[in-house]
Amino acid sequence: MNFFENAGSGPTGPLSLGKLRQTLIRLEDTIVFALIERAQFAHNAIIYEPGKFDFKDFGGSFMEWVLRETEVVHAKVRRFASPDENPFFDDLPDAILPALEYPPVLHPNNINVNPDILRMYTQEIIPAICRPGDDLQYGSASTRDVECLQALSRRIHCGKFVAEAKFLDPAQHDLYVDAIRRGDAARCEELLTNKAVEAQVVRRMRRKALIYGQDITIDGEVETKPRPESPTGGQGSRKIDLDVVVNMYEKFVIPLTVKVEVDYLMRRLT
Ligand SMILES: O=C(O)C(=O)C[C@]1(C(=O)O)C=C[C@@H](O)C=C1
């Protein structure tokens, strides 16, 4: 996506919080569909255990190896040169394409919460959305994991742009400057938090997980065939557990976005 067209009123226009929220809403769809794709395969715990597969010069897990190999290719086509992209690995090759000029929308920073995202995803989300056991679909499961992780990372690191938009808002600017100068992270968090918006996000995610996680017949009816393999059971024909998706947003996605926003703001005047 051309992030800068979506984020503001043109390549050099001011950041718009409304447009950034639209981007976050679109990423909700990407995240729900990616989780549904992953949930069709078993947990396959072995792919998350470091050292279980013998890779030369790589001591991580099978899934991390797939993630790293994917990032190697993406780095070569300059994915991580874009300020809205943050890699999970830092020893990646240079791009084979010449550098693009990006408008200096963000204050220079190296904030990257991908280690937190990786931990939350493999330890909390995967066991909750996948049926237990091993179906040997290691490649399929890992490539879906990469898609989930990249979508979550984009969503959470969008917090940098959201924070910049809030910092530049003339109605709030002086309050942020004062809190940042005093090193008051708690005050920054208080200023940027909007509980009403968070409640809307969570409600919308529940609806999306419900609606996108259904099979629709040719007549527009909802299939009600039970899915006995569901890890939580009792959710009938749903492809994904609604509570897991809601919980993931409440406990991890929004708090990590807030962490990115606060970290970004606390370094905004350096
Ligand atoms: O929309 C915003 O204002 C954001 O900062 C994003 C977000 C979120 O993660 O969805 C985070 C903090 C706010 O309290 C509300 C929502």
TrEMBL record:
Molecular-function GO terms, alphabetical: chorismate mutase activity; L-tyrosine binding; tryptophan binding
Domain of life: Eukaryota
GO biological process, one term: chorismate metabolic process
SUPFAM superfamilies, A to Z: Chorismate mutase II (SSF48600)
Pfam families: CM_2 (PF01817)
InterPro entries: Chorismate_II_sf (IPR036263), Chorismate_mutase_AroQ_euk (IPR008238), CM_AroQ_sf_eucaryotic (IPR037039), CM_II_prokaryot (IPR002701)
UniProt keyword list: Amino-acid biosynthesis, Aromatic amino acid biosynthesis, Cytoplasm, Isomerase, Phenylalanine biosynthesis, Tyrosine biosynthesis
Localization in the cell: Cytoplasm
Limits of the Chorismate mutase domain: 142-261
Major subcellular site: cytoplasm
Gene3D superfamilies xrefs: Chorismate mutase, AroQ class superfamily, eukaryotic
Catalytic activity line of the entry: chorismate = prephenate
Protein's pathway: Metabolic intermediate biosynthesis; prephenate biosynthesis; prephenate from chorismate: step 1/1
EC annotation from Swiss-Prot or TrEMBL: 5.4.99.5
GO cellular component, one term: nucleus
Protein name, UniProt field: Chorismate mutase
